[in-house]
Amino acid sequence: MNSISLGPGATTNSRDQQDSSALYRCFPDLVRFSIGEKKELVYNPLTRARQALPSHMVAALFACTEFATIAEHAKKFAAQIKVPATQAPSIAQAMSKLAEAGLLVSNKELKERLATGAEFNKISKRISTVGIPTRNRPANLQETMESWAECSSHYKRDVEYLIADDSEDPSVREANRNALKSVKEKYGAKIYWAGPDEKKQYAQALAKAGDLPQSIVDFALLNPDNYPLPTGANRNFLLLSTVGEYFIHADDDVVNKVLPSPSSHKQLTLLSQLDPFEFWFDSVNQPVPDDSKFALQDVFALHEELLGKTAGACVAQTGSDVDLNKTRSTFFRRLEPSGGKVLVTAFGLAGDSGMDASNYLLGLDNEQRARLLESEEVYRQMLMNHRCIRATRGPAISEGPFCTAMNVAFDNTEFLPPFMPVQRNSDGIFAQLIRATCPGGMFGYLPWTVNHKRPGSKLREIQTRMRISDIIYHIVGGYAPISYYSSPEQNLTGLSGTLTEIGSLPVNEFERQIKLIFWQLHTRKIGQLELLLKKYGEKPDFWSGDVRTHIQELKDAMVAENFVVPRDLDESIEAQTALERTQQLILKLADLLRHWNAIREAARELKSKERILGEQI
Q1: Which domains are seen in the chain, by residue range?
Q2: What distance in Å separates the CA atoms of residue 96 and residue 542, rounded to the nearest whole number?
Q3: Of 258, 587, 265, 309, residue with least CA distance to 444
Q4: Residue 15 has pLDDT above 70, yes or no
Q5: H or E segment to which residue 250 belongs
Q6: What is the pLDDT of residues 536-553, one digit of tens each?
Q7: SS3 160
Q8: pTM for this one?
Q9: 385 and 443 in contact (C-beta within 8 Å)?
C-alpha cells in the first residue's frame, strides 16, 4: 500500500485526527474522475475536499461504507484484498490521511452539522384537520371515519374533518353524507363534506380571488377531462383548503387503528435511499395481523414527533444515538439553507400492499428476500393477494422522495407542491415534486402500521409497460434544482419550463426521449436481477424461473412497437394519439406548476375571509 500526497488545497480535520476512537465513513456519492496513470480525482461535495488518488487508495476509500475506527476499516480492507494482517497498520496510516483530507467524514462532524441545523427549528403547530378523499365506497368511509372520530374524541384532540367526495352517482354521495351524519351523532365530530358542486364553487372562488385561468384551477381540482382516476384532484382540494395548517391525509380504506412495526425500536435513522420501508410477508412465522390486533393510539401526537421539525431538532429530541450510515453527502447539503425540515410524515401499513404490480418483489435482497422466499406458498400468496406489512423498524428521516398517502401528515405552513391531479401514483409524483422544488424538504417515517383494508384486492401482475404516471414520475425525477439554496418559486419556474419543453416536442422526438429514459431503467433492472441470480445461484427454482421470465419480458418490451405507450390509456387508442395525450397532460401539469404559488395564495386569501369547507354535516 503506497502512501499518498495530499497536494494543494487539502483540508484537515484536526479535531478527530489524534483520536483513535473516532468513527469515519465514506459517502457513496463522492464525485470521481479518471485522470490517467491509474489515478482518479475524488471530490467530496460536502467538505469540498478533493484529491488525486491512485486506484488502490480509491478502492480503500470506498470500502469504508459504514462508521468504524480507522483501525477497524484498515483491518477489514486488508482482509478484503487478501493481504497479510501485518499490513493493516500501513493501510490505517494511509486512511488517516484520507480522513485528514476530508474525504472520509467523521460521525462527530456530521452530528455537529445536525446540531447547527437544529437552530433553524421553530415551535411546531398541532394538527388541526384530517382530510379524507373518497369515491364510491360508503361502507369503507363510515368505518374509516368512525375510527378517526373515536381517536380524536378519546385523546381530546380538537380537529376538523374534511371529506372530499368524488363519487359519480348522487345516491352514493347521499349514502356517504348519511354515513358521516351517523358518525357526527355518535362522536360529536366537526365534519365538513364537499362533493362535485362544492368543489366547483371553490374552484370558481379561487380563480376569481387570484385572477387565475379557470381552466388551470379546474385541472387542479375537478378532472374536467374525465380521467378514470382523479384521486390527486381530491387531494389538491384538501391541500388548498388547509393552507397554513398541519393536517393529516387519510385514504378512505385505511382504518385509524395502529400496530407497532415488527422488531420496532426508537433509534432515529437518517437516510438517503428512495424507499425506507421493509417488507414482512404473510406466513406462519410472521402473519399479517387481523383487525383485532390493531389498537387506538394518539396518531396525531405520533405524527407531531417529527412533523415540521428540522432533522437536527429531531435528533436532539430523541435522546439516543442516531444512525447515519445510510446517508449520502446530499442529505447534509440539504441542511445548509434552513436545517432540512420534515414536510411529510408517514405511517407504514399492514394488509394490502397498495402496489399496482409485483415487479418490485422480484428484486428484493437480503432479509426481505429471505422472508419472501420462506416457502413457495408464501411467495405465491404474496404475488396473488399482496398481503404484507410495509414499514420502517424505527423512526426515520429521509431525503429520498417516497410517499404513500394512506396515512400521512403535511406541514402545510410551508410551501408544498400540488398532487398530480389524475391517474395513479399521484402521491409518488408529489414526493418527486417536493424533491424538485423544496431542496431542504425531508420525509419522516414512523415505526407504526395502519390497517389497509383495500376492497376487491386482486392479482397484481408483473408489468413491463409503463403508465402515464411512470412517465411523469421519471421526467420530474430527472429534474435537478439549480442549487440547494434556490427557492421553491425558482424551482417551480425551472421545472415548469422543462415540462413545457418536453410536452411541446414533436411526438416522434417525445417518443425517442421517453424510450431513452425507460431503456436505461429497464437495462438497470435487468442488470440488478442478473446479479441477484448470480448471488443466489439461481435458487430457489420457483423464484429464479419468474426472474428469468421477467428479464426476457423486459428485453422483449424494449424492442416492442408500443414500448412507451402508457398501458393505462384505452387499448383502442393508436400509439401516436396515446403519446400526444400524454404530452397534453404534461403541458397541463407545467401550467399548473407555473400558477401554483398564485393558487396557494388565493386559497390563503379565501381562508382568511371565510373558511370554505363545503357543507357542514
Answers
A1: 14-103 (3.90.930)
A2: 48
A3: 309
A4: no
A5: strand 246-250
A6: 999 999 999 999 999 999
A7: strand
A8: 0.94
A9: no
Is the pLDDT confidence value at 17 over 50?
A: no
- pLDDT number for residue 457: 56
116 or 204, which is more confident: 204
Provide the phi-psi class of 156: left if phi over 0, else alpha when psi is between -120 and 50, else beta: left
26 phi, psi to nearest 5 deg:
-110, 135
Cell of 425: 401514483
Per DSSP, the chain holds a count of helices (H) and strands (E) of 23, 19
Short-list 147, 451, 457, CA closest to 291: 451
* Per-residue CA distances from 505 to 468, 509, 513 (Å): 17, 6, 10
pLDDT score of 460: 66
The percent of residues in the chain predicted with pLDDT above 70, rounded, is 94
Interatomic CA distance for residues 433 and 387, integer angstroms: 29
Pairwise CA distance, residues 342 & 270, whole Å: 12
CA-closest candidate to residue 230, choices 241, 238, 222, 240: 222
Distance CA 485, CA 440 (A): 8
Pairing verdict, β 127-134 and 105-106: unpaired
Express the helix, strand and coil content of the chain in percent, nearest 5 each: 45, 15, 35
Rounded Cα distance between 277 and 448, Å, is 11
Residue 298: what residue type?
D
Is the Cβ–Cβ distance between 109 and 17 less than 8 Å?
Answer: no
Q: Where are the alpha helices (DSSP H) in 250-407?
A: 299-304, 311-318, 329-333, 335-338, 359-362, 366-372, 376-385
Residue written as grid cell 376538523: 160
Report the relative pairing of strands 105-106 and 24-25 from DSSP bridges. Answer: antiparallel
What DSSP letter does each residue of 50-85 carry, written as one string?
A: EEEEEHHHHHHHHT--S-B-HHHHHHHHHHHTT--G
Interstrand relation of 127-134 and 246-250 (parallel, antiparallel or unpaired): parallel
pLDDT of residue 458: 58
Query: In the beta sheet, which residues pair with residue 407?
Result: 250
Cβ-defined contacts of 360-369 (< 8 Å, 24+): 361/279, 362/462, 362/529, 362/543, 362/546, 362/547, 362/550, 363/525, 363/528, 363/529, 363/532, 364/279, 365/532, 365/535, 367/278, 368/278, 368/279, 369/532, 369/536
Tens-digit pLDDT profile for residues 29-54: 999 999 999 999 999 999 999 999 99
